[in-house]
Write a structure and sequence with these properties.
74% helix, single chain, Serine Threonine Protein Phosphatase 5, Tetratricopeptide repeat, TPR_rpt, TPR repeat
Length: 333
């Protein structure tokens, strides 16, 4: 694995997003990075039309890169073109869900009224703010208010005071949300250099998935499961990765493990049903949707999903019944 040649990682870490302060990389041999620099400079010069043209050209050449869609979305929104902005945002989010967190942060930072709890912590005495736990508590509240920069500062101060490396996992999570993948990875690597941590392996695996380093992600997920095989999060993450890689048998195995671990949760049945659909195992998919409906009979979409499959296998009356239930539940909402 060579992240220095990984364009997903490079573009996010360079932070050359419109209206965000960033340093221009000196080594720009990577062609997508050159597009990012040119468009960033166009935005700095307030030449937004040129910036959109560069982003559009980059998208044509590198349609798999979420960075360019996100940047064009930001410019479209700045120009008041909300429809185009939303279209590009949806593609960026589909390619890497962290871009959803990033754009959500851009839209909400500084917009929320601070809660009483956060105001109280802001007014803490200097002595209280010397306590790492006070800083950690404030950081968690800052995240809820989309004050990510302030949360990072609080986690950093708490870490410097306590040297508790688990704090770095929380900081890495925020770095990931704001697409500072290099900083997130540095924090997680530091934690794992000193200890075996389920959460650090899990978060690093998610980061590797975001930048399409799938083998490294699988290794970290396996390490997380080896440390604690009672937690469902690693199984779900691995199942979704197997599904993305079209290794459907392995995905079904992991979703089945989730079901065995918590048979009263309807959602793993839905996830497994979706894989059964992809493998055209209609009856197994229908059985899973039926169990999901038993566990959550008021979730209208489940009837629509099952109805479509019943229609596919020729059960017209079952399909019509499910569609009718779907419509009734929708009207009741």
């Amino acid at each position: 694995m060579n992240l220095e040649k990984n364009t997903y990682y490079i573009l996010a870490s360079a932070q050359l997003f419109p209206f965000i302060s960033a340093d221009i990389p000196v080594d720009n041999k990577n062609e997508p990075l050159r597009f990012a620099i040119e468009s960033y400079q166009a935005v700095q010069a307030e030449n937004y039309t040129q910036a959109i043209e560069i982003y559009s050209k980059a998208i044509t050449m590198y349609p798999e890169q979420p960075f360019f869609y996100a940047c064009r979305s930001i410019i479209h929104r700045f120009n008041g073109d909300d429809e185009s902005a939303f279209y590009d945002y949806q593609i960026a989010k589909r390619l890497d869900f962290n871009y959803h967190h990033f754009i959500e942060w851009l839209e909400n930072q500084g917009e929320m009224l601070e809660s009483d709890d956060l105001l109280e912590l802001h007014n803490s005495t200097p002595y209280q703010l010397d306590e790492p736990q006070t800083l950690i508590n404030r950081a968690m509240l800052q995240v809820q208010h989309f004050n990510y920069a302030e949360a990072i500062n609080d986690y950093s101060t708490a870490f410097e005071s306590s040297k508790d490396q688990t704090i770095l996992i929380s900081r890495a999570a925020i770095y990931t949300h704001v697409l500072k993948y290099d900083k997130a990875l540095a924090d997680l690597d530091l934690v794992l250099s000193g200890q075996q941590s389920f959460d650090a392996f899990l978060y690093r695996a998610k980061l590797y998935i975001a930048v399409k380093e799938f083998n490294a992600a699988l290794q970290d997920l396996e390490s997380a499961i080896a440390l604690d095989d009672t937690k469902t999060t690693a199984y779900e993450e691995r199942a979704q990765l197997y599904e993305q890689l079209e290794q459907f048998d392995k995905a079904i195995t992991d979703y089945s493990m989730l079901i065995d671990m918590n048979a009263e949760d309807f959602y793993p049945y839905v996830l497994r049903a979706d894989v059964f659909e992809k493998t055209e195992n209609w009856n197994s998919a229908i059985a899973d949707y039926t169990e999901a409906i038993r566990l959550n009979p008021y979730y209208s979409d489940l009837y629509q999903y099952r109805g479509a499959l019943l229609a596919k296998i020729g059960d017209t009356s079952g399909a019509e019944s499910d569609y009718a239930t779907f419509q009734r539940l929708e009207e009741e909402d």
